[in-house]
Amino acid sequence: MKSTMHALLLLIALAAVLAHSPPAAAVAADTVSSSSTNADYVLGEEAIKARDWDRAVQHLEMAARSEPGNPDVQNLLGYAFRNQKKFELAFKHYQQALKLDPKHRGAHEYIGEAYVLTGNTAKANEHLVALERICGKNCDEYQDLARAIAKR
Description:
Layout (H helix, E strand, L loop, with lengths): L1 H18 L4 H6 L9 H11 L3 H14 L4 H13 L3 H14 L4 H13 L3 H15 L4 H12 L1
Helix pairs in contact: 3-4, 4-5, 5-6, 5-7, 6-7, 7-8, 7-9, 8-9
């Protein structure tokens, strides 16, 4: 009787621990190099890697509702919209990312590239200057944007 009671208590304790543990998907999200463990953010990143822009927008919009203060979500939404050629929406989300984090290197790079694609090299150069102030001429974001401007 004593061992049965002990086993029952162990099962109850285990059930309590499991009930308060994050789901397996959230644990797996921790292994992805992202700024969020939000499942929709991670799924949005995966959709971007697969170049599935519609799915990326779907998940990233849900992530934005869950994490309205996350500039990385806004930046990736801008990136997905830019790849759909929805530049007005792309600019809106890049600007929101920069409002949340004025030194967001990825947002400066991506908005600059969007300006290049829409023929506004002067605005692209403004973001190149901002990147130089933030991280210098040797950071990837600066170099990528400089190359995009040079190709124009």
